[in-house]
Amino acid sequence: MTKPSLHLAVLASLLPSLSLATIAHATDGYFQNGLGAKAKGQAGAAIADPQDSLSIGANPAAAAALGYRFDIGADVFVPDRSAAISGNGAGLDGRSSGNGLNPFVMPEFGIVRPLPGGLALGLAVYGNGGMNTVYKQNPFAAFGATGHAGVDLKQVFVAPTLAVEVAPGQSLGVSPLGLLQSFKAAGLQPFAVASADPARFTNRGTDWSTGAGVRVGYLGRFGRVSLGAFYQSEVLATGFHRYEGLFAERGGFDVPASWGAGLAVRASEALTVAVDVKRIAYSSVRSIGTPLAPLLAGRPFGAADGPGFGWRDISVVKLGLRYAVNPSLTLRAGYGYAQNPVRPSQTLLNILAPGVVTHHVTAGATWTTASGTEITGFVMHAPRNTAKGRGSIPVSYGGGEADIALAETALGVSVGWKL
């Protein structure tokens, strides 16, 4: 078997395992902070600075600039999530840890191949987001909840990609997106009475959903400066039928649209500085963006206009530095900032999904062996951020406030080959 054929066989064999991997990244809301170990070492900045085949997940136009290569990697991710309720007249007061399940391992891989006429084909398979909480001490026990409480959301994308160099150094790309996602919820029994379908609200096991969307991108290189941009449509997904009584629109859970731009400057022969700016439209998906308020107006969970998690749209900024020490060693560092999508009034439901970290710092390196194999590692830390509730628990649920907190640490490694 030739080396390219072997790499394709490995990719195909790992696809089922990736679809079952638990994804808990939540650095940009519930999206990952980056794709590929090289990008993750510089805070995810990759829209204008593609370095491996996973970069086509950030900007499909990158396929025309990467040459023929194959990359495969895996992350180990350790989130630290917790909640505290105070001033509640119904007995909910107390602190709870959502760390009943840790750590998480997530693989990703991709391949890019140039074709005649300035064309390039690529395929990337990656987890774009997710959230997991397991509260072994159920924070809603005083309401009559039993067993552990929590949710588990997994999202995996398959992105076949076509790019074309339309002029020297200028490329356009498109990735039709396939989505496979799963969800389960447990320990939420007391809230089922406020559902349009109480039998399909909690403790229904794992349900699966599929969806489709598209991502388009541009990449332009102008001497020492590169510019990039992308737009990803809302990914329309089939509903979670086992949870039609929980999510708005009878189990609807589409993936929000996002868009962004990047700038990369080769400041010297050794140093490259990359900056990305991105916007994620969480509020456009009703099950994510609708606040709790409709429930108090008589509209139940699961209804078309029913309550959701109340997430707002966020902006994300990433700064990455890459320094080539010599032909064999490249060092990276980065800093990212993302707005907190959870409003102070919406922290009660978000005990289940506390995607509230706002800052993260990263470091990474690539060692290229004498045979040309690229071995890349990275580490990321997002310091704890606490989102304090303000008017977060309705009087009908005893009033008071729910505070939620999240910190994250991740490390990963990848191996890449120029074919």
Automatic annotation (TrEMBL):
Alphabetically ordered keywords of this record: Cell outer membrane, Membrane, Signal, Transmembrane, Transmembrane beta strand
Bilayer topology term: Multi-pass membrane protein
Residues of the signal peptide: 1-26
GO CC terms, sorted: cell outer membrane
Gene3D superfamilies documented for this protein: Outer membrane protein transport protein (OMPP1/FadL/TodX)
Compartment(s) where it occurs, according to its Swiss-Prot or TrEMBL record: Cell outer membrane
Family annotation (Pfam families): Toluene_X
GO MF: long-chain fatty acid transporting porin activity
Domain of life from the UniProt record: Bacteria
Family, per entry: Belongs to the OmpP1/FadL family.
Name recorded for this polypeptide: Long-chain fatty acid transporter
